[in-house]
Each structure stands twice: as structure tokens, then as C-alpha cells.
Design brief:
Mean pLDDT of chain A: 93
Number of helices of chain A: 14
Number of strands of chain A: 15
Radius of gyration of chain A: 22 Å
Oligomer: homodimer
Strand content of chain A: 15-25%
Order of helices and strands of chain A: EHEHEHHEHEHEHEHEHEEHEHHEEHHEE
Largest sheet of chain A: 7 strands, mixed
CATH class of the largest domain in chain A: Alpha Beta
CATH architecture of the largest domain in chain A: 3-Layer(aba) Sandwich
Low-confidence stretches of chain A: 261-272
Shape of chain A: elongated
């Protein structure tokens, strides 16, 4: 086997998670062990850092700080939402990437992100091949939405799910404190996939779950919703609703679109959020005198490293580690995927590879058969699926009672 | 010394905290050790449980579950907002309380709450004295607002402060992930006192604090605010604002009152909240094309037991313990207060007593000299004050990666 020798670049893309930096630690610490990898660069703000030649020299960082990346939320190198145009439309970005890769003899490229980032990887890889430039490109998955195709789950999901489940348990306690009627509507992220919203159902296992749960996989009807709320209110005087930002009506139109202005991000995705407040207003109009409280988990659910799942951190780290190993072994055009070992009695994950083209731009939804018809939650299949992902001590390092985040020097390579 | 012999009642009142149940554990476990205390009752929904004779028999509970109260947020017995009318206006509630106390030979009454609850304690005590009914009444402080007079701080504050500081650190990471401009406005509870909002400044100690901090102790001007935001935005492209729900203009009028409808709770307090959204709208109107994101910590900040301060839990527990000991020793009409030991080099708290009449209905504010003029944060005095309160492992018990809350039997005493 011919081993490519050269520099590697790692970049972070898309919305951050609590553990995206754990994958960075995995890539960096493994790259240091590989003789084939000469230099280790971190691209500032993902592919933008490549285009603008803003590359951090990771060998200049202290090992201790790189280890601390495991408990540092968000993207330590900076992230980006930047969509490459098809080569046929405009190849200037691709030419520039090739130029930079050649200049630094970059033979390994690792990109950490979701659907769109895998599409970016795929396009770059195809272009480099067309130019006969040898470079092994491996995608490292991440997204709290858990909507990546071809992998059992994605790094970032377990931690966000643990945050959602724990916080819903706490909210259940809080919303039941008075004996006055209350409707509390909690909004969870996840775009068109209900995985993260569904994790609120894990709180039900402990007896502190939501009364009503609305996922984007099932069409949403405002009148049905109002009836659901009224029925629960009548029965128990309290309604704890957990709802996905991405709920849609029978025609596929976002509910939020009816009442709040809908902007698009640069990938063309709708910028959602605010549905809890909209629905709270509707409930309040319908049920006079009843206290209604909307709560949006907002950014909190994706950066809550203090309650990250230890399992998730370890898997995110291993995803980065395995990306490097697979690349050095000669693999390219692949994403690291997680396969749950069906022969293991205990939960065990294997790290495999999948062609990038299969991962790009496909959304994985919750099987509708896992969703109970009465909006009360999920079936046992979901519990079996999700529970192992939120386990494990995250070994967070504290200083003065507060998290000790990694403190990187961020030394740029001279252009 | 004559020791009163009889039953005790403990009740929880007002907004819950992460550690109000730790005080319950303190009261119950200490009461079990005291020969003077015959029966131990928990009143459902505070004073309402007394009036309606809905009393839990705490001796029926498992000790293990009572211990777990230390990590169970909110009010395990149920809370209430119920204001007793002055005796001169209507003495029917007082007569009823006396009737219940006589029926069960209640000689000890412990009430856990804030300003208003101490007022309730004081009124009951004065009435019972006027009727020559011997009963020792001790208030146990609690409030995330930390606005109780006569005590160095209040149980509940340290945990909420740790939540706010940690979450602001995480949000700082998240909001700095892209290089596009962003204004993020975080709203924190605390009513008319800035203590909890100020705890966001603890994140600054680690380099991840807010750029701008607005407390209710300093009059708020919308134009000044907009100028502050613009200046920071120009300098660093990102603005992380943390703002108290209780900010007021120079005339003392709530800013939220200008733009959102203001309801009153049954104590006559304004029901605040929503100011972040209102200000985000104003910033958005002023600065076109700039992304503005309001985040309200809402109930999350007062029930986040998963990140409670170990110090706070211990102190809340001790506040309950000491209330029982002091009462059995013959004290009454007092609240347990915390005094920081000035002679100890390490942080050390002593548990003393203060007359209820001094505690009732007085709000303790942050000294204005501790607040920096440029809205950038607090002085060293605040750090020295607040930092010890957020320390310590909370020893949370997990089951399946989720918190294990106390599971009380809640067996009612037969009427």
C-alpha cells in the first residue's frame, strides 16, 4: 500500500455541538501519532479558512489544552455555513482550494459537519480527483439533529438528548409546583427530524416526561393540538408540551411559516424557531385566564457541555481518531459512520466508512412506527435506541466551580 | 428551659429553587432526631395545606428518599403563593390555622420561602401569641433572587448563579462560532435585585463573560443601550448582552411595562419576563441585517439541580437543620440567616437568627459601588462575594444517565 505523505487540514462546519471539539481532539491527537502526516493544520471557520489561507498550526498547541477540547463546547476553530457552487457553475473556489493544498502539500483533509458539510467534502474530493491531485478526504459526522443518513447516530446528539431529557425532568418538577392550571410549551431544535425532540420522552421513563410530544415526522394540526391541550388540562390541570421547531401541516408547510417570518440561511434552509411562543399565544387566546409559558431551549441545547454524555464525547473523539487512521490507510471520499454491534449484548459501536455521496443532503427521520398515535411519546424501540447514547461521566474539568475550557494559542501558519 | 413537646409542620412557599428540597431534607431528618418533636408533617402547597388540612406524614417516608431530596429540584410538597390578609381585616385564616395546630398539637412551624413567606410566618406567629397558643415558628430562607434582608445570601442563589455563569460561558462559545455579526440578548430572573444577573459576570473571570450587563439597580435607558450595543458590535462584531428581567427607567418604571402587558401575581408583584425579546426587536429594527437572538433562561435557571452548587445544597440542608435545632431550643419568630465568618481565611458560614419582622418585605439590592459604570460587569467585591457560593460537588445520583429524584409516598394524615 502506498502511503500518502503530507500535511492534514481539519475544519469544522455548520452549527456547533457540545462535542464537535472532541472530534477535533481525536483528529489532532491521532494525526500526531502518524508518520505519514507531516503538518497538522486547523482551518479557521471551516472551508473559509482554507480559501483564505487562515490555518492554525496545531503542533504549536499544548497537549493538555488539546485534551481539554473534549469538554469545550462549540467550534474551537470557528465554524462556517458556506455552500460551494457546483464546479460547472463556478470552479474558482475549487481552484483556490487546490492551490492552497498544493502550497502546503495537503494530502489529508478532514471535515466535521452535517449533511451540507459532507456535500462540501464530496465536491472537493471529486474536483481534486479530476485534477489528479492525490488527497484523502474523510468526513467526520456531527449534528445534534441526528439526521445524518447511513450512521446509527451522530456525535452531538447524545449530549443534546441528555440535556433535553434532564431539563424536561427538571421542568416537570417546576411546572407542577403550584396547584393552579398551567400550560408550558417547550420548543426543541432538530429541523425536519424529531430525534432531539423525542429525547424528551426519555424523561417519561422516570415519570417526569411531557404530556404531549409533537415531532415533525407527523403532520401537525393546530385544532387537534388545542384539543389535546384541553383534554390533558381537564384531566390533570397541567400540560407539559414538548414540540419540535420543525413541525409542519399536512401539506408540508412549516407551522411557524403561518405566523412568523421565515428567513433562509445560506444553504437555503429555513431558519426556524419561535414556534413555542406562537402556539402559546394561540392557547392563551383560546383558554382565557390559564397561564401559558413558552420556553425555547435555543442555543442552550447545543452547547451544554456541562451535561454532555460521556459516551457521546468518547464516540466523537473516536470518530476523529478513526477518520485519521482510515485516511492514512488509503481511504478517501468516505464519512466515518457508527454501526451498533448487533451481536453484542451490551451497547457497542463500531466505526465504519460510508461513501460521501450517500451521506450528503439526505435527512434521516424517526420511523413513524416508533411514534405513538396519541402524541404521548415514543415506543420502547426509541428508548432502546436512545438511552445508551446519553450515558457516561463526561469527566468535566472544573476550576472555581466553572468549566475549564481549552485555551488554544491559535497560531496562524505564515502564508 | 421548658421544651415544647408536639408535632411540627414544614411548608414550602413561593417560586421553587434547585435546593428548596434540601432544606426540607434538613428539617425532616433533624426533626426525627428530636425527642421534643412527636409528629412530622409536610404541608401540601404551603400554608394552603395547613388551612385545608392536607398534611403528609413524613415518618412514613423512606430515609433514602428523604436524602434524595437534596438533589430534587422544585418543591416536593408543592408550593403556593398565598398572602394572608391582616388580622384586622379578616382573621378567618388565622382562626383556621390555630384550629388545625390545636387539633394536631402542632408546636413547631417551619416555613421555607422568601420575603412574602417570612411575612406570613410573622403574621401567624403574632396571632398565635395573641391567642396564647405556644408554638415556635422559624423561617427558612430561600430565593434564587438573593434579595432577602439580613442574611449574607440565600439558599438557592448559589445554584442558580452557577447555572447562569456556566451557561453564559457556553453561550459565549456558541455565539462566537461564526464570524458573522450577532447580538445575543440573555434575560435573567431576579425581580428588582441584580444578584442573579450579576452572576453572569463570573463567566468573565474565565474570559467568557458578557460584553454588556444590565442590572435593575442602575436605571436603564433604551438609547444608551442601543449605543452600547453599537459600540461593542463595531469593536468585535459580536455582542453578548445579559440583562435582568427587572430593569427600570429613571422614573422607576419597568422597561417591560412599556411594551409588554404587565400582570400581577397574588402578592401584587409584577409578573416579569420577555424583556429580551422586546429589546431584541428594538435592536433588530435599529440595526438592519444584523442577526439578533433573544434567549430567556426562564424556569430553567431555578430548577437546574443537575448543576446545583454543592455548597448551596449543604447550606440549604443546614438552614433546615438549624431551624429545627433553634426551635427546639425555644426560639421563635425568627428566620435562620447566614453570616460569613469574617475571621476565617477560607469561606465559612455561620447560621444565626434574625427577627422575622426585619426579614419580611424588604429587598436587598447589590451595592451600586460594585457595579461598573460602563456596563461591563462587576468589581472584585462581587467576585469575592459570589464565587464561594457556586463551589462544590453536588453529588447528584444518576440512574440511566438521568437524575434520580426523590420519590415520596406522600401519605396524607387522616383528618
Amino acid at each position: 500500500m502506498k502511503v500518502l505523505k503530507g500535511a492534514c487540514i481539519f475544519g469544522q462546519s455548520g452549527g456547533p455541538t457540545a462535542v464537535i471539539n472532541a472530534s477535533a481532539a481525536g483528529v489532532f491527537l491521532e494525526a500526531m501519532k502518524q508518520d505519514a502526516i507531516t503538518e497538522i493544520f486547523g482551518a479557521e471557520h471551516g472551508i473559509r479558512g482554507v480559501l483564505e489561507e487562515r490555518l492554525f498550526d496545531i503542533r504549536k498547541e499544548d497537549l493538555k489544552e488539546l485534551e481539554l477540547l473534549k469538554n469545550t463546547p462549540s467550534s474551537a476553530l470557528g465554524s462556517v455555513r458556506y455552500k460551494l457552487k457546483p464546479v460547472s457553475v463556478d470552479d474558482s473556489d475549487y481552484k483556490r482550494i487546490l492551490e492552497v493544498f498544493k502550497k502546503y502539500n495537503v494530502r489529508y483533509f478532514f471535515y466535521n459537519g452535517g449533511n451540507d458539510s459532507m456535500d462540501t467534502c464530496n465536491k472537493i474530493s471529486k474536483y481534486l480527483q479530476s485534477q489528479n491531485y492525490e488527497c484523502n478526504i474523510i468526513g467526520v459526522p456531527k449534528t445534534i439533529d441526528n439526521d445524518l443518513f447511513g450512521t446509527d447516530h451522530t456525535p452531538g446528539y447524545g449530549s443534546a438528548a441528555r440535556y433535553v431529557a434532564t431539563t424536561v425532568m427538571e421542568l416537570h418538577q417546576d411546572t407542577h409546583v403550584y396547584d393552579t392550571p398551567l400550560v408550558c410549551i417547550v420548543e426543541v431544535m432538530g429541523r425536519n427530524a424529531g430525534w432531539l425532540t423525542a429525547s424528551a420522552a426519555l424523561a417519561s421513563l422516570k415519570g417526569y416526561g411531557p404530556d404531549l410530544l409533537y415531532l415533525p415526522e407527523v403532520p401537525f394540526d393546530v385544532d387537534d393540538f388545542l384539543n389535546d391541550v384541553k383534554m390533558v388540562l381537564k384531566r390533570k390541570n397541567k400540560v407539559l408540551v414538548v414540540i419540535s421547531e420543525g413541525i409542519k401541516d399536512f401539506s408540508g408547510k412549516y407551522i411557524s411559516e403561518y405566523l412568523v417570518s421565515l428567513k433562509k440561511d445560506s444553504f437555503g434552509h429555513a431558519q426556524l424557531g419561535g414556534i413555542a411562543t406562537v402556539l402559546a399565544g394561540i392557547v392563551s387566546d383560546e383558554l382565557n385566564q390559564i397561564k401559558v409559558r413558552p420556553i425555547e431551549f435555543s442555543l442552550l441545547q447545543r452547547c451544554a457541555a456541562h451535561i454532555a454524555s460521556g459516551q457521546d464525547i468518547e464516540e466523537a473523539f473516536m470518530a476523529g481518531t478513526m477518520a485519521v487512521r482510515y485516511a492514512v490507510e488509503g481511504n478517501s471520499d468516505k464519512m466515518v459512520v457508527f454501526k451498533r454491534d448487533p451481536n453484542s449484548k451490551e451497547y457497542k459501536v463500531n466505526y465504519e466508512l460510508l461513501n460521501l455521496e450517500y451521506c450528503a443532503n439526505t435527512e434521516k427521520k424517526i420511523p413513524v412506527s416508533w411514534i405513538k398515535d396519541d402524541r404521548s411519546g415514543l415506543t420502547q424501540e426509541f428508548y432502546d435506541y436512545a438511552l445508551p447514547l446519553i450515558q457516561g461521566d463526561n469527566k468535566i474539568v472544573l476550576e472555581d466551580g466553572l468549566p475549564r475550557f481549552a485555551n488554544l494559542k491559535r497560531v496562524f501558519v505564515k502564508k
